[in-house]
Design a protein that fits this description.
134 residues; alpha+beta; 2 helices; 28% strand
């Protein structure tokens, strides 16, 4: 099968900390239906390793898209490079982990609740610090 990206839905340029000329380009293509009835979402990361087109597979377009984001996040984190996007802090690629349902709904809900508690805790601390500085 010849690899092709297809219509692009998004591109993000990442810069390596300490090497502003070193650019990594992440390209995400539109999910499409595969011949077997599943969906695939092509993506490519140029500037690291081979830069070949990868495919995330899902039962529908949304799952394929989410899994493409997870594939991108995983590949970028494995490089151990401090890559950053224009709107992020050093080391923030903007590709965050999503709460998976691979291990069942109960596990996913538990992780989601843990994240919600941490976000609430952080927000309360930030709010109390802001009040003290006013």
């Amino acid at each position: 099968m010849k690899r092709r990206l297809g219509p692009t839905v998004g591109v993000r340029k990442l810069h390596e900390a300490g090497s502003p000329r070193k650019i990594v380009v992440v390209t995400l293509a539109r999910p499409r239906k595969a011949t077997n009835g599943d969906w695939v979402c092509p993506y490519q990361i140029r500037g690291l390793a081979t830069g070949r087109i990868q495919y995330a597979h899902g039962v529908d377009a949304v799952q394929a898209l989410l899994l493409a984001f997870e594939g991108i996040r995983t590949q970028l984190s494995r490089t151990k490079k401090r890559l950053s996007w224009e709107g992020g802090e050093p080391g923030d690629t903007g590709f965050t982990r999503f709460v998976p349902t691979f291990f069942g709904l109960e596990f996913s809900k538990r992780l989601d609740q843990m994240i919600a508690r941490e976000v609430d805790r952080f927000a309360r601390k930030a709010k109390s610090v802001k009040r003290r500085t006013l």
